[in-house]
Amino acid sequence: MLEALEEAKRALVTGDVPVGALIFDVNGVLIGSGRNMRQGTYDPTAHAEVVAIKQAAQHVQDRVLEGCTLVVTLEPCVMCAGAIATARIPTVVFGAWDEKAGAAGSVYDVLRDRRLPHRSEVIAGVEEDASAALLREFFAGQR
To answer: How far apart are CA 95 and CA 90, in angstroms?
Structure first.
């Protein structure tokens, strides 16, 4: 998670919300990384998780990321949870809860919804204080 926090800080350079994501394969090798990249790209889908998933899929040359673990500093939103489910990522670890738009247990629980064909194990609150502090500082500066 500390590496994901460093990735999140890189988003500050472009004025993006500081969220970072990393994807590790079954052997613990980093195969994808991403940070929010919506500013400047004008891409509303350029969330950290989506960027990391695309990079990891290119790395393994497959749309399915079986055996992988996604580590992200903020609870995934509905869009990202859908991408995670589509990529069939079995394990998701996140830092801060997103009480407004979270889809891994706070507002929605897309990642563990029994009605969907794929479910992920969710591990929440890893480096939660550091992840939440980074976001609080960013939004305080926006006001």
So the answer is: 17
CA 14/CA 78 separation, integer angstroms: 24
Strand intervals (E) in the chain? 20-24, 30-35, 69-74, 91-96, 121-124
Output the pTM of the full model: 0.96
Tokens of 139: 């939004």
Residue-wise pLDDT tens digits, 42-95: 999 999 999 999 999 999 999 999 999 999 999 999 999 999 999 999 999 999
Catalytic residue check, 99: no
List the structure tokens of 70: 């996604």
Structure tokens at 78: 């509905």
Active-site residue, selected from the candidate residues 7, 49, 75, 127: 49
